[in-house]
Amino acid sequence: MQISTQHTLSLINIIVKSIFPDLAMHMQRTAYISLIIAKELNLHKNIIENIYIASNIHDIGFIDKKWSVTAPKDIVESEYITEHEANGVIMLNEISIFEPALTIIEQHHISWDATNPEKYPLECHILHMADAFELFTQSQLDNNISYEDIKINDFIEENNQFPPELITALNKVIKHDILWYRLASAQLEQALVDISPVKKNIISTDDLLEVCQLIAKIIDTYSNFTMSHSIKVAKISRFIADKMELPLESQKQIQIAGYLHDIGKLYIPIHILEKKGRLTASEYSLMRIHSYKTDEMLSQIEPLRNIKHWAANHHERLDGSGYPRGLVAYKLDLPSKILAIADVFTAMAEDRPYRKGMKPERILDIIDEEVQNNRLEKVVFDVLKSNIKSAYSIINKV
């Protein structure tokens, strides 16, 4: 599996877009503006890469359920503006490939001081200006936009907190039609992939694990009923794969599938996810969509094609009674079967706001019945059963 830094940025954008589409678009437009300005300044390759990474995820600190229906332009003046930078750094500080971008993210709302022009790195000012300029142009973008239509002098007069060389660079790049066409285009995401300075930066599976753990935290905090569920499924899946002595790389990829298996739930309304009673037929039908949405979301990241199947198959059953495809045993590979049992085990073992987790003995009885009915894989179940105490302790430690 070869996956790049750009793939991880695209994956994060897919997640953000599902719960906060305006913010996702704002960060992509800001990334494009930042990249064009950095290139105009002919900065070093590493600096351009760091600016690009930072701008793609600069407002990730806003990812919180209470902001999910708020547009970026509406929260600029809120008290949370002073918190989201630090919150973003906290969310990202365990991801090695993003470490060089953290300072830029943490200080992307600072102002330039002519008396102390080198107080902050130029990268911070570039992101700040791109961020502000994107918000300024939001209401003016359409398919027929041109430089002449933008009241650029209004922006410059209203924003004198940027270094003069950045204003000069901005004045140059905004005269090219391509900037406006791309900012207004529904295909901006693909344009970013095409011109990305990090699309050839191949990362390790361990790096991807760090990114996907962050994504799992975002998924799990979306609903109070599933707090830490994805992280637990990932750990149980990796635990079973290890006990089955699968190759180390396969174990890591199965863990990644565990982190991502429920990303489709970001499209399910909260009132359904958090309903305490039995779901109605229509509600259950809507809930079932989540595994298909997981498949749909991960299909956009081509290197994750195997992981996509494992993650999306966690509700499939050997007898064909599962969903979304109704796959039967011979069409389900071992990682898919591991994810299915890990998900069932975790769901029953973990505490939920409306009930305590079940005891190991009861869980084994229920899964054993599923195995006897040819719904879950016996080989995987036998491994779980033989290591039930260790598996149960993993649930309680997360």
From TrEMBL:
InterPro entries on file: HD/PDEase_dom, HD_domain, HD_GYP_dom, HDIG_dom
Highest taxon in the source lineage: Bacteria
Alphabetical list of SMART domains matching this protein: HDc
SUPFAM superfamilies xref list: HD-domain/PDEase-like (SSF109604)
Keyword entries, A-Z: Hydrolase
The EC number(s) this enzyme carries: 3.1.4.-
Enzyme class: hydrolase
Gene Ontology molecular function: phosphoric diester hydrolase activity
This protein's record includes keyword Transmembrane helix: no
UniProt keyword Transmembrane, yes or no: no
Pfam family, one: HD_5
Record protein name field: 3'3'-cGAMP-specific phosphodiesterase 1
Organism: Klebsiella africana
